[in-house]
Amino acid sequence: MAPQVPTVLPRRTDEERTRGANPASIRTARREDLGAIVALLADDDLGRQREAADSMTDPAYLRAFDQIDRDPRNELLVVDDEEGGVAATLQLTYVPSLTHRGGERAQVEGVRVASSHRGKGTGHLLLGWVVERTRERGCRMVQLTADKRRPDALRFYESLGFEATHEGMKLRL
């Protein structure tokens, strides 16, 4: 059975992959990107409530970055803009599962696009890359959650073919 992934996103040709069809580039985050990543996470009302953008060298962020970086089931990605800054980020985690006939799924977390890059295709580029990567890996699905208080993000994900199929629940600890 083929993986159930959004079909709206175009697949890139081999030529586009090698020459970079978009001036922005997607790469694995480096430790020196951490300040820019935390700033993106805090760049809206919800993020400001829970992130410490003024303390980007907080040991908790450094510890989490190192754990993600060492874990082969995690990828912390950034999109570089034309000036070499970080235009967007997300964390991609591969989750083994007994459901869906033992198929691996990809969990997308912490998607943020800099306000100066919204509406310019940066998020589409990044999520398209994720779908392609997970499809090639053989994942059965890509899943993500978005806060209900972010209606623009919900509309964006729906425009890419993602569907709100479940009600998510969280228990803050």
From TrEMBL:
| Gene3D superfamilies on file | 3.40.630.30
Please name the SUPFAM superfamilies in this protein's record: Acyl-CoA N-acyltransferases (Nat)
PROSITE patterns per the UniProt record, alphabetical: GNAT (PS51186)
Region entry Disordered, spans: 1-28
User: Does the entry feature the keyword Amino-acid biosynthesis, yes or no?
Assistant: no
Entry-linked InterPro entries = Acyl_CoA_acyltransferase, Bact_Acetyltransf, GNAT_dom
A molecular function (GO) term: acyltransferase activity, transferring groups other than amino-acyl groups
Tell me which UniProt keywords the record has, alphabetically: Acyltransferase, Transferase
Listed PANTHER family? AMINOALKYLPHOSPHONATE N-ACETYLTRANSFERASE-RELATED, AMINOALKYLPHOSPHONATE N-ACETYLTRANSFERASE-RELATED-RELATED
From which domain of life does this come?
Answer: Bacteria
What is the originating organism of this protein?
A: uncultured Rubrobacteraceae bacterium
Q: Please report the name of this protein according to its UniProt entry.
A: N-acetyltransferase domain-containing protein
Please report the stretch or stretches of sequence annotated as the N-acetyltransferase domain: 24-173
Against CDD domains, the record matches this protein to: NAT_SF (cd04301)
